[in-house]
Amino acid sequence: MTIKPDPSIAIPADLGAVHFVGIGGSGMSGIARLALGAGHRVTGSDVRDSANVAALRDLGATIAIGHAAENLPDDVDTVVVTGALWQDNPEYQLALSRGLPVLHRSQALASVISGQRLVSVAGAHGKTTSTGMIITGLLALGEDPSFVNGGVIEELGVSAASGSGELFVVEADESDGSFLLYDTSVALITNVDPDHLDHYGSLDAFEQAFVDFADRANEFVVISSDDAGATRVRERLSHERVLTFGEAADATVRVRSIETDGPVSFAVDHEGVTYRARLRIPGRHNAINAAGAFAVLVGLGFDPAASLEGISRFAGTGRRFELHGVVDGVSVYDDYAHHPTEVAAALSAARTVVGDGRIIAVHQPHLYSRTRLFAKEFAEVLEQYADETVVLDVYGAREDPEPGVTGALVSERFEHPDRVAFIADWQQAADHTARIARPGDFVITLGCGDVYRIVPQLLGSLERERDA
């Protein structure tokens, strides 16, 4: 069993010396960065070295690779853990035996942001991009917000920073209910597409968590006008100030005239005035994300035209349609998409810029429960939006394996089996991809597990295929 947030744990007024177990993750590394900036001594551990680990070491953190009881310093005051850890983790167990305060990462973040004017971004999809757009917009407006995002913001090179302004922008995680721990001033809900039902148990409980999250916002709520789940949540809200965004005719911020030929351009109608923008990133869904970020900024009182211009400077985040290399005209991208809706959005965005080339998806299913529940939907969107698909095996993350649940559950549901291959061995998958790719094609890895680690193998296989 993995570690869940325990709201009964008293959060120390001063975290003191902090040890992070699983420090390399995007969320954990961001909180560790803030802790270092606040003057805390930071130690930690992770299963592997990474750019996040290297950056934290450069800032003064002491980090061990691998999890072992001896990694926990004798003089540590607080231990922070991630929900991706199993309860038998030796550092976690030793901290418990010592009687140390052991905080879930969401509780540590709640401590760091206590007393600040918080903008929390939640939703099944689009959180990281929307958070990045808000941060980019605020910086362009001359603000200096603090923030913790789920991915590195391209133009800033970091996923978290301490600012001097009153605003703090966070990507709020709904997967385990931890977004309810924050004292939110402004709540942005990008969508409420069913996910994480393994935690909530039912769709109604999942949607009720979003109702609770929104109604607790101190100032106002921004929520999608188009998403079916968000519509159901909006009908249950009791909040006095709710702004909507999307393509619906009655949206507070209405998006229209979306053009997806290359980087997306669109018009936004707000309070009788039309504003136009062209983003630096592709995809129809990003026009919608931009509208949500725009609604937050104008809701905070910023000038609409200047807000939209600032948002348009956003250049993307790490692991969101991120180009890693081009070999003989074949471009290799990586994307975090791990839900059928996200996969459809990522691949449809790629379609707008691939030109005459084909799209080859390399899909790593994430979680056994999600694969079992959505195998048919994954197959449908992959077959609809990709020309060829390679399915890897399941990345189980926090779950134990389920008998019979492998990547084959997805590949077997393709209507045209000649367009898909289930290949569990990564090198064989890379070699197969290189054989079927041709100049002009996009190869896109998809998943929120460790599928990005296959990218060097893909590039290597493409090089060998070219030299053959």
TrEMBL record:
Organism: Agromyces bracchium
GO biological process: cell division; cell wall organization; peptidoglycan biosynthetic process; regulation of cell shape
High-level lineage: Bacteria, Bacillati, Actinomycetota, Actinomycetes, Micrococcales
Pathway given in the UniProt record: Cell wall biogenesis; peptidoglycan biosynthesis
Function: Cell wall formation.
InterPro entries: Mur-like_cat_sf, Mur_ligase_C, Mur_ligase_C_dom_sf, Mur_ligase_cen, Mur_ligase_N, MurCDEF_pg_biosynth, UDP-N-AcMur_Ala_ligase_MurC
EC number(s) stated in the UniProt entry for this protein: 6.3.2.8
Keyword match Nucleotide-binding: yes
Catalysed transformations (reactions): UDP-N-acetyl-alpha-D-muramate + L-alanine + ATP = UDP-N-acetyl-alpha-D-muramoyl-L-alanine + ADP + phosphate + H(+)
Name of the featured protein: UDP-N-acetylmuramate--L-alanine ligase
Localisation: Cytoplasm
UniProt xrefs under NCBIfam families: murC
Mur ligase C-terminal domain span: 319-449
Gene label: murC
